[in-house]
Amino acid sequence: MNAAGATELPEGVRAALAPASDAAAAEAFTRDLAHGHYENFSVVSLLLPKHLRQDFCNVYAFCRTADDLGDELGDPARSLEELDRFKERTRACFAGEASAAVLVALAGTIRRHDLPITPFLDLIDAFEQDQRVTRYDTFEQVVDYCRRSADPVGRLVLYLCGYRDAERQALSDKTCTALQLANFWQDVRRDLIERDRIYLPRDSMERFGVSEETLRRQIDAGHADESFRQLMRFEVDRTAALFEQGKPLLPMLRPGVRKQIALFGKGGQAVLEAIRRQRYDTLKRRPALSRWQKGRLVIATLAAYVGRSLGGGGE
Fold this sequence. Notes:
Number of helices: 16
Number of strands: 0
Helix content: over 70%
Mean pLDDT: 89
Structural class: mainly alpha
Low-confidence stretches: 1-7
């Protein structure tokens, strides 16, 4: 990347791709990045075993950087160029050659947990797809996108927690796909207005009499009509079913990591509940969790864990 190209990148991305003086500085950067972004659930919470917190920060920083390269440049062609460069840097990192802060930090995590490269390349591939594909004909196509945009994150979490088997990965995929879908249904308005993307499947839209034209008209009007509400109810219900299908994963995890992973699923289900409370109108405003609601999620997760422990549930 030439110097001119580097200066055009957003400040956070420039910092992530800048050379790190050493591994300690790189890890300090990923910690700051992880704790500085506000999501629907804490990226690295006190529920996570201490020895895994840095590794979670390192993986998160990689995902955040790739996501920003896809969404924050404002030019699909430029994003594709930068994502391709990032892909090559990732391959070099796995070959033992890393200089960018985010990859220097990640290199330690790769060594400690023997991580494969495939989930990282899948993530970049999904962000590249966002530059080329902005509409989806079927739910299956959207789920296939989630297979690369969300499921790799869950698999990486399992690797960090010491699990590598196909059964746990398949259950994790259900939860991660549901998390991604919940985010899509939460962000219908923003995705269309800010990014010209529609993740609602075209066949579902047609089933409920919703078109891109009516979406834009309702956004302009500041509220959703009954057809959109019925469409959103349909999508929320089948997303909730995916969360249910992923729940058998939790008893298969050690209590020390079960708490954090349970919080991820609870956060996604809380988003669906927020959509329901708005009577499925995500065009007027984005459903979001308040700090109080997030705190309730943490407390509920801790309470369930303590209850299991006192009841002799164990592993």
